[in-house]
UniProtKB/TrEMBL annotation:
Belongs to the major facilitator superfamily. Sugar transporter (TC 2.A.1.1) family. This is MFS transporter. GO terms for cellular component: membrane. Gene3D superfamilies: MFS general substrate transporter like domains. The chain crosses the membrane at residues 21-39, 59-79, 86-106, 112-133, 145-167, 173-194, 256-279, 291-314, 321-343, 349-374, 421-439. Its main location: membrane. It is a multi-pass membrane protein. Residues 21-443 form the Major facilitator superfamily (MFS) profile domain. Keywords: Membrane, Transmembrane, Transmembrane helix, Transport. NCBIfam families: SP. The keyword Transmembrane helix applies.
Length: 465
């Protein structure tokens, strides 16, 4: 299912181990997506049981983003001090506790606290997992494995939709919100088998351990020595805090700003409006409750299938072509959705066209904007400020996500679905222009080369050349 550079019988033991490590780490994406799918299906039942208003329901969804922003903000400091593996394990503990609180909730406030903890865990995962993959995988696996993280996030959304649809017939929302507990426990166990990141080890002066880890993950001694020497050269520059580097190094400010803008643009595509509120959107279009639930599962299927395709395409087409294609597909499909909902077109044909437009939209996102933004945000930051830079961009993602998800239902109640979808369609056009002007092509380019070009002052779109 996953792309490789050689047939299975010719893969080296080091390649196989790197693949397994990348897959375990990328599995954190499954948990991130699972919550999205489950809360989408559970939200209506929770609202009914606790007599929650529209604003209450917006907060049930969006409080997770506040937690995620807290998690991503602290993840950089904690992962730099304690290591990526330990921080991922801590996230699994928080996920388990948060899901338990939601399952046993007797008041809306307990659900909010539980989802806040789940949000902290998700914020840690979305920061730490792509960062660990980018630091541990070699160039030919790096893009594919970060895309695998995104694909498994899509698979988690599908699993959440599917489980939610099955349980929705009996209104079993407590079963829905308990589902993340088992995979959190399994991933906690899987993290015990992950090696420390070579970049983290080199920063702590553990040279022998760095070579040991690299020898287990690289195919040849030459690759080991080349990467070890590159890491040593970066470490020899001395440690500077992220904030100090931000003040002192204008080129670092450029990469941080690019990462922040990429994550904000990802959220302004409108993807999480569709993923969180799909059942409500479809019910407004005259789908029944059961029909909306199963149509939502179809959204999850498309998201997952396209996520798998993106793994193969990311190292063939490159980052920039996929991002532009992705945004163009989303802009067109949301324009169609805006016309159908804005004109209140009647009949089953219009309803099915709306569903098809939303399916195409989700597919467009999974093709490029979903996986590649996370990949780029890990690639464009220099080693010395990588934790800080990735942390800033991840924080921006969650705050943008909060802003969109916390206002969507209220916005629709004022201006309607048509104008809301039209606004998101316009933002996808802006995304295309932004990509062409500023986003570099980093396919098959080493992190060291990207850093050298960035710090030399090259234009952002040229730092991958």
């Amino acid at each position: 299912m996953f792309p490789t550079t050689a047939s299975p019988e010719h893969r080296s033991p080091a390649h196989q181990k790197a693949f397994r490590i990348g897959l375990i780490t990328a599995s954190a994406g499954l948990l991130v997506g699972l919550d999205t799918g489950l809360i989408s299906e559970a939200l209506g039942f929770i609202g009914n049981d606790f007599h929650a208003s529209i604003r209450d329901q917006e907060w049930i969804v969006s409080v997770l983003m506040i937690g995620a922003s807290i998690g991503s903000l602290g993840a950089g400091t904690f992962s730099a001090r304690f290591g990526r593996r330990l921080v991922l394990m801590m996230a699994m503990v928080l996920m388990f506790i948060g899901a338990g609180l939601c399952t046993d909730a007797f008041h809306l406030s307990q659900i909010l606290v539980g989802r806040l903890l789940i949000g902290v865990a998700i914020g840690i995962c979305t920061f730490t997992a792509p960062l660990y993959i980018s630091e541990t995988m070699s160039g030919h696996l790096r893009g594919s494995m970060v895309s695998t993280f995104s694909m498994l996030q899509s698979a988690g959304i599908l699993a959440g939709y599917l489980l939610g649809s099955i349980l929705s017939s009996g209104g079993h929302w407590r079963w829905m919100v308990s589902m993340p507990m088992l995979p959190a426990a399994l991933l906690f166990t899987g993290c015990l088998f992950l090696p420390p990141s070579p970049s983290w080890l080199i920063a702590r002066g553990q040279d022998d351990r760095v070579r040991e880890v690299l020898r287990s993950l690289r195919d040849t001694p030459a690759e080991v020595e080349q990467e070890f020497n590159s890491l040593k050269q970066e470490a020899a520059k001395g440690h500077v805090s992220g904030l100090r580097l931000l003040r002192q190094q204008p080129n670092f400010r450029r990469s941080v700003l690019l990462g922040i803008c990429l994550q904000i643009m990802q959220q302004l595509t409108g993807i999480n409006v569709v993923m969180y509120y799909m059942p409500k959107i479809l019910q407004n279009a005259q789908f029944g409750i059961s029909g909306a639930a199963w149509a939502t599962v179809l959204i999850g299927v498309i998201n997952t299938v396209v996520g798998i395709a993106a793994i193969f395409l990311v190292n063939r087409w490159g980052r920039r072509p996929l991002l532009c294609t992705s945004a163009a597909i989303m802009a067109l499909s949301l324009t169609i959705a805006a016309i159908i909902t804005g004109l209140h077109l009647p009949g089953m044909s219009a309803t099915l066209c709306l569903l098809c437009a939303l399916l195409v939209f989700v597919g467009g996102f999974g093709l490029g904007a979903g996986p590649l933004v996370w990949t780029l945000c890990s690639e464009i930051q220099p080693l010395e400020g990588r934790d800080f830079g990735v942390g800033c961009s991840t924080l921006a993602n969650w705050w943008a996500d909060w802003g969109v998800s916390n206002t969507f239902l209220s916005l629709v109640s004022v201006i309607g679905f048509g104008q809301t979808f039209a606004g998101f369609a316009f933002m996808n056009v802006v995304f295309i222009v932004f990509t062409l002007m500023f986003v570099p092509e980093t396919k098959d380019v080493s992190l060291e080369t990207i850093e050298t070009n960035l710090l030399a002052g090259k234009k952002l779109r040229d730092i991958g050349r």
